[in-house]
TrEMBL record:
Pfam families: PAP2. This is Phosphoesterase. The keyword Magnesium does not apply. InterPro entries: Autotrns_rpt, PAP2/HPO, PAP2/HPO_sf, Pectin_lyase_fold/virulence, TAT_signal. SMART domains: acidPPc. Residues 186-326 form the Phosphatidic acid phosphatase type 2/haloperoxidase domain. The keyword Hydrolase does not apply. The lineage of its organism: Bacteria, Bacillati, Actinomycetota, Actinomycetes, Micromonosporales.
Length: 629
């Protein structure tokens, strides 16, 4: 139940009175002994799961036991203690907080004019519009269909004379709207989904009011607030700080610091919420949208408006809120309609199908797609998952928060809910990070990595892909380095690719469809069986155990010389109906297809387009002599 101070007249309380009430509770001025805004850890442990309680995130609720958002961010209690007023908080972990402020000071000191301009644009531009850039070559197509516009496209060279807000620019098409676009547009269901995910229960303000962690430009390196008693040329109080706000944003700052906490970052929360909503509707750009949210959120630090702690907490809050809202039964019809509408519209506009839209969505060069390079995206995201947070203690598996699996529902639609939870668990950040290890540990979820499939097979994994269903239902690639004791079984008619340096020990069974090995150790360290299915090798691969093929196809690229397309550390058995399909480099005359410790059996058929193939079998290898014709 809410504290009596808040229960009395929750609708009548002003924001300022809510803050005063929270400060009074923190200082022990109300109801007897001191009661931290974080309340008692046992309350968090006994609370409802966030996805079942997200609608408690309103400004009338500012404690762990009354507000689910405040609760999941309560890992901050190991770093910072809220004071009676906004400027009297107490640093608890001075090492982390000092690193937090030093990062801000270093970034803003090294900031270029171009970075300042970009920080201004993303401060003033509607966040739902900003993340549309994560759609790459689909961005302009989406904007046209959704009638999404912005008036913030450039930055002034200095401090503007007035505050600036986003608006529909003159000359925009009729019905245009800022943000994700117009709900009445051709992509109205997608727009409505984004707006719903960013709805009335998604605010960062209750947590800001509860934590009362000042913005970096109001704090010293030691997280102290020192008002110099002077004002700048704009009339703003000058605080002692090494953090320099971008000149374009000096007039955009709040004049009421008690209502302007930095933790969590509201812009970051909004950016990730919008990105995850778009990613649900357009999963062909899932990983790029996640990257975009991380990228633009970082401009909050570049701007001098937020610290790493603010940005990390904003991302944590958004991850939980997006999962809760997408899980809400009231939104089931909307999210399905948004996904269907996006797919149909984008395919129609690009002349693609469910099977070819992904390739089109990734066809843009870096000049038109800022997130075209997956490796660069990973380099961008990885350090921003934790920023300056140190890691201590031992690792332990993540207990995936209830409902988190919905975030992968359209990106990995061929997996069960339990399997999607396993993906989140096996790709999670390690334990031991302050803030990330708070209640439910939403901060440990790594959606960039999860979009690339399993990180470990803790148990045997069975997957069925359906080529007729199209899209990710029919074809996908797992790019992570997969470990663990389990193995993989592929069924159905679709295609699954493995491109990681895999170390899983449970073996591979291809009993339907096509498994594509795109790395030397893609098949793990166990046995491999291919039966009534196909194994395709896009580069020379190794089987850690034995290899058995029955009524199946081995498709490989072979090159002149002694290096085998497939190396088997155990016995290779070619059973009845085994077929071989080879692609060879021009001029090849003798290629080694398979080399094993011991070989039994023969291929029933060998096809090499453009060549007549003569197989040569030895006790431990298969070679093919090639002749034109």
């Amino acid at each position: 139940m809410p504290h009596p101070l808040f229960a009395a007249h929750p609708r009548a309380l002003s924001r300022r009175n809510l803050l005063r009430g929270t400060a009074a509770i923190s200082a022990g001025l109300v109801g007897g002994p001191a009661l931290s805004w974080l309340s008692v850890p046992a309350l968090a442990a006994a609370a409802k799961a966030f996805v079942d309680d997200y609608q408690s995130n309103i400004t009338a609720n500012l404690t762990v036991d009354t507000n689910a958002a405040v609760r999941i961010l309560s890992g901050v209690q190991t770093l910072w203690q809220t004071g009676p007023t906004w400027d009297t908080g107490v640093p608890l972990d001075r090492t982390v907080l000092r690193a937090n402020m030093r990062h801000c000071a270093a970034v803003t000191a090294a900031r270029t004019d171009a970075q300042a301009a970009r920080a201004f644009i993303h401060d003033r531009q509607h966040q739902s519009y900003a993340v549309i850039s994560g759609l790459g070559v689909l961005a302009d197509i989406y904007k046209a269909g959704a009638l999404a516009v912005t008036s913030i496209t450039t930055a002034p060279t200095g401090t503007p004379p007035t505050t600036i807000s986003d608006a529909v620019p003159p000359g925009a098409p009729a019905g245009s709207a800022i943000g994700a676009g117009s709900p009445s547009s051709a992509l109205g269901a997608v727009v409505t989904l984004v707006d719903t995910v960013r709805g009335g229960f998604s605010s960062s303000n209750p947590s800001k009011f509860a934590v009362q962690y000042p913005r970096p430009w109001r704090m010293t390196e030691n997280s102290e607030v020192v008002d110099t008693g002077e004002v700048d040329e704009l009339g703003f109080p000058i605080y002692r700080s090494d953090v320099v706000v971008a000149p374009q944003l000096l007039r955009q700052r709040s004049r009421t610091p008690a209502e302007d906490g930095g933790f969590p970052s509201g812009h970051t929360n909004a950016l990730h919420l919008a990105a995850l909503a778009f990613a649900y509707a357009i999963p062909e750009r899932f990983q790029e949208l996640v990257t975009c949210a991380f990228d633009i959120s970082d401009t909050r630090i570049t701007a001098g408006m937020h610290s790493p702690l603010d940005v990390v907490s904003g991302r944590i809050l958004a991850t939980a809120l997006a999962a809760a809202i997408l899980n809400d039964p009231a939104n089931a019809g909307l999210k399905a309609a948004a996904r269907q509408q996006a797919a149909a519209y984008l395919q129609a506009q690009t002349g693609t199908t469910a099977d070819t839209l992904y390739a089109y969505a990734h066809s843009g060069a870096s000049s038109v797609d800022p997130y075209a390079d997956r490796a660069a995206n990973q380099r961008l995201v990885t350090p921003k998952l934790t920023y300056i947070l140190p890691r201590t203690g031992r690792d332990k598996p993540l207990t995936v928060p209830k409902g988190a699996e919905v975030l992968l529902e359209t990106r990995l639609p061929y997996l069960t809910a339990a399997q999607r939870r396993a993906v989140l668990r096996s790709t999670a950040l390690p334990a031991g990070y302050a803030l990330l290890d708070g209640p439910e540990q939403w901060g440990r979820i790594n959606l960039f990595a999860a979009a690339d499939g399993y990180g470990a097979f803790d148990d045997d994994v069975e997957v069925t892909l359906d080529a007729a269903a199209g899209g990710f239902h029919g074809a996908d690639t797992w790019r992570n380095d997969i470990s663990g004791p389990g193995g993989l079984t592929l069924r159905g008619t679709g295609t699954l690719g493995l491109t990681g340096a895999n170390r899983f020990r449970g073996g591979v069974r291809v009993l339907g469809g096509t498994l594509v090995a795109g790395a030397t150790n893609a098949l793990g360290t166990g046995d491999v069986q291919v039966r009534d299915a196909a194994l395709r090798l896009t580069q020379a691969s190794t089987v850690g155990g034995g290899y058995r093929q029955h009524n199946g196809l081995l498709a490989a690229t072979a090159r002149q010389g002694g290096h085998a397309a497939l190396t088997v550390n155990g016995t290779a058995e070619l059973g009845r109906g085994s077929a071989l399909e080879l692609t060879v480099e021009p001029g090849a005359q003798l290629v080694t297809v398979l080399r094993a410790r011991r070989l039994t059996g023969r291929f029933a058929s060998i096809v090499v387009p453009g060549y007549r193939a003569e197989p040569i079998y030895t006790a431990n290898a298969v070679l093919v002599r090639l002749r034109r014709g």
